[in-house]
Each structure stands twice: as structure tokens, then as C-alpha cells.
Design brief:
This protein has about 350 residues and is an alpha/beta fold. The protein has helices at about 20-25, 55-65, 125-145, 160-170, 185-190, 210-215, 215-220, 225-250, 255-265, 270-275, 280-300, 310-330, and strands spanning about 5-10, 35-40, 70-75, 80-90, 90-100, 105, 115-120, 150, 175-185, 200-205. Helix content is about 45%, strand content about 20%.
Amino acid sequence: MVKERPYVYIATLGNAPQVVTLALDQLLPRHPFVEVCVIHTDAAPDTNLPALKFGNMHKTVQRLDKEFLNPRPRSAPPGERLWLVDYKIGERYYQFSYRRIVIQKEVQQPGQLAQHTPVKDVETEANAQAAFRTIFRTVQAYKGQRAVIHFNIAGGRKSMSVFAMAAAQILFTPGDQLWHLVSREEFVRSQAMRDQRDMSRLVPIPFLSVSTVNPVLGMLISSNDPYDIIRAQENYLQLVDLQRKEKFLRTLDYDEYQILVGVAQGLSNAEIGNRLKKKLAAQTVANKLTTIYETYAVSISETPTDVTRPNSENLRAFLAAEFGAYFQQKGERLTENSPGND
């Protein structure tokens, strides 16, 4: 018997706790969430905290916690809080786990073990990286449990929404969904935790799943650090791109290869024609350049049924961008006395 996959609701939290509940009220009747997870910055009751963009997170979290009824504490890892709670929508009660995760960054002093410190705001590069790692590892942990994730990215800093999108692109599988919340201005000003007048809407956010598009890239997701994964993907894509270019270049004859070198070098058709061993007219170079483009376009297309021919300037710009760095790294240039092959 195949075990049914659990449903999980994740939300980032800023200064508007109603963002969490408004989306949850719309999603919960349709999806049997076993856990609601809220990711936020430091919520310690520190009166000396600076005036942050999102106000006092301690008060924000207090307002949100009140919406989850009869909390029964459960054990949780450091930096997290977990309760079994009841939640009421209309006349119906739901029961699930309510988890809060604080964004923390790793701080290591000389001669000491690394310690994790709560992040008060996502305003520095180090804190932003901590936010990305927290969001990524949260999603990764749920995906390790085969969970179907509905992620509400409407709360918190804009950068947190971007990190959630990046985590979704790397980790999400079919069935997972990103959401954004849109509310009317007067309803936003009211700061109401529940919507009784149908003044807010959930908007699905499309995303491109890396593991779905390219299973090989999906196999690279073995680290719990998103930055390691991104670097691994970049290295893999660069290798694939290099192999593809070299395979294509081997199909060109000598003149076509030299013409492409000249284009990457920024030469005009006339200049290229004059530098070839067997000089060619500018129009002949242009014709060959079109053939090169169309052949390359077919080689990188999975469905080579029709090739749209751009104008000459766009065609040259595309090929120069594609092969400029390649020829530069190889030190190849089309000189006045470029040698030829007999």
C-alpha cells in the first residue's frame, strides 16, 4: 500500500501576520495540511532592537500565535518552536502541527565552535545568506519526507520571496505550489487577521523546476547548502555548454569557422572576407553567416522544425555572445594574414 504524501503549508513572515492566516484560510479547506510552518527573523522581546522596516517581530509573532488555539508544546530543534494546535475557519475546526523557525546565521570565533545567532533583519549579505539557507533547508527537510508543499511567499522582505522562489526551482516537484496574496487597500489598512468580505485573493506563482527540466541537475542536489548546489549546477551547465559548442564547431568547414571567429572578434563582413586566405565578398560572408546561425539554432533546439531568421544585426550579436568568450579563452583571432589549410 502506497503511503499518502503529507501536505505542508509554509509562509515567510514580515510585519503583517494576517498574510499567513488569510492564505491559510483559503488553502486549508482544499488541502489537508499536517503542518503549518512560519519562517521569520528574531522574535525575542528586546526593547533595544532598532526600528526595523517590519517593526517589532515579537509583537507580530504574538498576534499570529493567538490564531492557533489550544497549543500543546512538542519537542523541536534549537531555533524552532512546535505545537499541536487547533485552528478554526467558520464553524469548522482543524488540527495540525504549528512550527515556527527563526532565521539564524552561523558565527564562529577563533578557537571556538560555531554558534547560531538569530538574525534580527535581512539587511546585510550575511543575514541574507542565512535567510536563504534557512528557507532552503526547511523546504529540503519537508521534501525529504515526501511532503506536498504550498509556500506562501507574500510575507517578509522581498529578498525572502526571491529565496523562496530559488528554493522552489531547485527542490519542488510536481504538486508543489508557490502562492502570493493580493488584498484590497482598505482591507490591508484594517490589519484584520481574517477576511469576512472576500477582499483578498491568492495568486499562484509559476516557477521552473530544475529537477523536472533536467534530471541530471536534479541528481546534483545532495548538499543542504543552496550555494554549493548552485555552484555545482553552474559548473555542470558550463561543461555541457562547452561540449555542445565544441561539437558544433567540429561540423564547420574552415571558412565557416574563421567567419565565426571574426564575428566573435567584432569584425564586419567585409573585414572578415578580406582576412580569409581565400578572400570572400561581404555578401558571401553574410550568406555563410546565416547558414552558420541556422545550423547552430537547429543544434541547440529539441524540436528543429522551423528556424526563425533574425535580422543581420541580431544574428551577429547572438553568435558573438555565444562564442565570444570561447574564442577569447582559446586565444583565437582572425588576423590580416590568417593561415589556412591546404
